[in-house]
Design brief:
The complex is a heterodimer of chains A (319) and B (385). By secondary structure, chain A is α+β, with helices and mostly antiparallel strands. Chain A contains 11 helices and 9 strands. Chain A has helices at 7-23, 26-34, 41-49, 68-81, 87-93, 142-151, 183-213, 225-251, 254-278, 290-301, 307-316; strands at residues 107-111, 116-117, 124-129, 136-140, 153-154, 164-166, 176-177, 215-216, 219-220. In chain A, strands 1-3-4-7 form a 4-stranded mixed β-sheet. A 3-stranded antiparallel β-sheet of chain A has the order 2-6-5, with helices on one face. In chain A, helix 1 packs parallel to helix 4 (68-81). Chain A is globular, with a radius of gyration of 19 Å. The model of chain A has no long low-confidence stretch (mean pLDDT 94). Chain B is an alpha+beta fold. Chain B has helices spanning 7-23, 36-53, 71-83, 93-106, 109-121, 235-249, 252-272, 278-307, 315-342, 349-357, 367-378; strands at residues 126-129, 145-149, 152-163, 170-176, 187-193, 199-204, 213-224, 228-229. In chain B, strands 1-4-5-8 form a 4-stranded mixed β-sheet. In chain B, helix 4 runs antiparallel to helix 5 and helix 8 (278-307) runs antiparallel to helix 9. The longest helix of chain B is centred in the last third of the chain and has 30 residues, at 278-307. The radius of gyration of chain B is 21 Å and the shape is globular. Chain B starts with 6 loop residues before the first helix and ends in a 7-residue tail after the last helix. Classes of the chains: A alpha+beta (319), B alpha+beta (385). At the A-B interface, helix 7, strand 9, helix 8, helix 9 and helix 11 of A face helix 7, helix 8, helix 9 and helix 11 of B. The structure holds flavin-adenine dinucleotide. Flavin-adenine dinucleotide is lined by residues 127-131, 136-137, 161-163, 212-213, 359, 362-366, 368-369, 372 of chain B.
């Protein structure tokens, strides 16, 4: 047993972090969120060219041939950077939807009873049917997709990076089945958990940095125990979620993925809230990035596998 | 990242499993929790069995009488013994996980030869005399003093919360040898015989009704100078070595135990019909995620320690914070599974466990102190008040 990142995995994570720092720095991140959100197609193509969506396709199919652990490391970085877009759905559809692997196509996610993000201009819809445990995926495109778009109603989205639409009941719409039964649900949950993990880590860093710099009562606020303990709690949440997410990526076990999603949602939401608290009044402003992480974390917590469904699945596994 | 075990590790696991399957049925029944002499006999008997089979002090270095096993093998040992329902270290805790490793790391050749083999064989029990009435979290402010008199230290003062003091043969004792020095200097680490004249042990009753720990009064107790481990006035550093062991691996087996308890809770809830309560069911589901993650966190910390030369790092504090809280949550859920009536019945094992679990956020450094350690040593936040 050697449950540590390999040198290659470390290099991969550092590589994508660098790529994102160059192509999606804070200014571009803010512009993306202040300007109504949505997918930046040019950046999407660059990510595609870097192999991000084709990562898990076999090399014989034009992919990179890497596994879930590598995907998780990439999605963690994209979560840190607060990259908008249906990243997990598009990677899962690579190979099934033309152009998805190359970053030419955007594939949005649709789940029964939930709003759909980035519907306008999407090239295909990955629809998850059925109960959380036994979900199967279908891909809607062409005429069926155009009809969904026509019937959809835009919402005022809580998350400024993710425009949302209410869509009609999709049960009657014809689509291409995705192979492998429940696999898309599990893997999507894991990739979303990885994004949550990245976000939780970023919130922790922001809180610690602020706690070191901001002075009150003639001392850095980070020297006060109340603030220290908030930060320590954030680290504990992030590290617990990290080992759960990494282990689930190694085993691919659905039950372990359910636990990882649950804890990663908790870490992303909890850390964003605590980060906001550490920032005081500044944390309540539009200008600070904290709220963007919190809003995205709330959105992701409601996608792929909710807390209620994860807890029920994990309960059924006991005894 | 690789969660699979090597062939060698799997072979080790298989041999251990086989041995456990043969050894466990012959064990006498578990003694009553209040019967300390009985518990000592039970725990030392088990230790002797481990010793004869070559499993004693598995993770100790070979030149200290151990097997020099890797942290992963130690992990497998703790996992398998717990899974098989083997006795917990119990009264051997301080000797095996704490004082022993410290003597192995810091002691002289004579000290190792004198103290380590009896710990491994289960012949001698140790206790930990660190805390004092006025020095708990602020351990370095301890006042029990030791004054040189010829070849002896003469020790006077008092210790408190000393677990297993009633049945211990030796005590790892922190004393002040230089009252003039700054408080972290001036401390020495002594091995004290518990039957030395001047040692009085007064059992304290815990909130669970048992006598897990005791107060110790030391009235001019003579401790030979060669029983000092490490240099005079260098005891704080030696103590930090000890504490890193205490926090690093002490709770591994218990995570496995928690997962067993959780399964038993679910089975009981299904039997009694409480499973229909979605709030309770989801709570148990969340605990399943929690203990699975804590096990993975353990594996992560062990792999990290293995890569870093075997010394547990500050990650132990991260683990302890989360684990101690989760364990208390587990027994809160247990009370709900038992229901309002049975949750008040002290003859139910989970009720006693619920009481015991209250100590997890206090013993071995409180959660507040662990949070300070995480914030200052891992996150680098400035020291403060
Ligand atoms: C079951 C059990 C077994 C034990 N076994 C042993 C043993 O065998 N040997 C031994 O030496 N000791 C033992 N202990 C003692 C244990 O290590 C101490 O109880 C513990 O370190 C806390 O010290 P204290 O009890 O003096 O509490 P205090 O230090 O008085 O703390 C009281 C409260 O104040 C908080 N506090 C104190 N200082 C700070 C600070 N700087 N910042 C924030 N909060 C703070 C604490 O978190 C706690 O909530 C045992 C304790 C228990 C409960």
């Amino acid at each position: 047993m050697d449950f540590q990142l390999s040198d290659d995995q470390r290099a991969l994570g550092a590589g994508i972090r660098e790529l994102l720092a160059g192509r999606f720095d804070r200014d571009r991140m803010r512009a993306a969120h202040d300007g109504g959100g949505g997918v930046d197609r040019a950046l999407w193509r660059e990510l595609g060219a870097a192999g991000l969506f084709a990562l898990r396709l076999p090399e014989t199919a034009g992919g990179v041939g890497l596994g879930l652990p590598e995907s998780v490391l990439l999605f963690e970085e994209m979560g840190r950077a607060l990259l908008p877009g249906p990243l997990a759905a598009t990677q899962l559809a690579a190979g099934a939807v033309k152009g998805a692997a190359e970053g030419e196509a955007v594939v949005a996610l649709a789940e029964a009873g939930r709003p759909v993000g980035h519907l306008e201009g999407t090239d295909a819809l990955l629809v998850l049917d059925g109960e959380a445990g036994g979900a199967v995926g279908r891909v809607l495109s062409g005429r069926a997709l155009r009809q969904v778009v026509r019937e959809a109603e835009p919402m005022r989205s809580l998350d400024p990076g993710t425009p949302l639409w209410r869509v009609p009941d999709l049960a009657g719409y014809e689509g291409e089945p995705l192979p492998d039964g429940a696999r898309p649900r599990h893997e999507g949950a894991l990739l979303a958990a990885a994004e949550q993990l990245g976000s939780a880590g970023r919130s922790l860093e922001a809180a610690v940095q602020h706690a070191r710099e901001r002075e009150q009562f003639a001392a850095p606020i980070g020297s006060f125990q109340a603030v220290k303990h908030l930060c320590a709690g954030m680290l504990v949440r992030a590290e617990t979620a990290r080992t759960a997410v990494y282990a689930a990526a190694v085993t691919g076990d659905p039950m372990e993925i359910a636990g990882a999603k649950l804890l990663a949602d908790e870490a992303a939401v909890g850390n964003a809230r605590d980060c906001l608290q550490v920032h005081g009044g500044m944390g309540f402003t539009w200008e600070a990035d904290v709220h963007l992480h919190l809003k995205r974390a709330w959105l992701r917590a409601g996608q792929w596998l909710t807390a209620a469904d994860a807890e029920e699945a994990l309960a059924a596994d006991l005894g | 990242m690789d969660l699979s075990y090597t062939e060698e590790e799997e072979a080790f696991r298989a041999r251990l499993r086989e041995w456990l399957a043969a050894a466990l049925p012959g064990l006498p029944g578990k003694p009553d929790p209040g019967d300390w002499p009985g518990r000592r006999a039970y725990d030392t008997h088990w230790q002797r069995l481990l010793y004869d089979a070559g499993y004693a002090g598995l993770h100790w270095p070979a030149d200290a009488g151990g097997r020099g096993a890797t942290p992963t093998q130690h992990l497998i040992f703790l996992e398998e013994t717990e899974r098989a329902g083997a006795p917990y270290v119990g009264a051997n805790f301080v000797g095996l996980l704490h004082a022993g490793p410290t003597i192995a790391a810091e002691g002289t050749a004579e000290q190792r030869a004198r103290w380590l083999p009896p710990v491994l064989r289960g012949d001698e029990i140790w206790c930990q005399g660190f805390s004092e009435p006025e020095a708990g979290s602020d351990l370095a402010s301890l006042r029990t003093r030791a004054v040189r008199d010829g070849d002896d230290y003469v020790v006077s003062g008092s210790k408190i919360w000393t677990s297993h003091a009633e049945v211990a043969d030796w005590c790892e004792l922190l004393v002040r040898t230089d009252p003039a020095a700054p408080k972290h200097r001036g401390i020495s680490w002594l091995a004290m015989r518990m039957d030395a004249p001047g040692v009085t042990v007064r059992p304290l009753r815990t909130l669970a009704g048992s006598t897990e720990f005791a107060e110790m009064f030391l009235d001019e107790v003579r401790v030979p100078v060669p029983h000092r481990v490490g240099e005079e006035n260098d005891g704080w550093r030696v103590t930090m070595v000890t504490l890193s062991f205490e926090r690093g691996t002490a709770f591994v087996g218990e995570v496995v135990a928690c997962r067993r308890t959780l399964d038993a809770l679910a089975a009981e809830a299904r039997r009694s019909g409480r499973w229909d309560d979605a709030v309770l069911r989801r709570r148990l589901g969340r605990l399943n995620a929690e203990f699975r993650a804590l096990w993975r966190l353990t594996q992560w910390n062990v792999s990290e320690a293995q890569a870093g030369g075997g010394v547990p790092g500050a990650g132990g504090s991260v683990f302890k914070l989360r684990y101690s809280h989760a364990r208390q949550e587990l027994y809160e859920a247990a009370a709900e599974v038992l229901g309002a009536g049975d949750a008040l019945d002290l003859d139910r094992e989970w009720v006693l466990d619920r009481l015991s679990s209250l100590s997890y956020t206090i013993a071995a450094g409180t959660s507040q102190i662990q949070a300070n350690i995480v914030a200052e040593r891992i996150l680098g936040l400035p020291k403060g008040r």
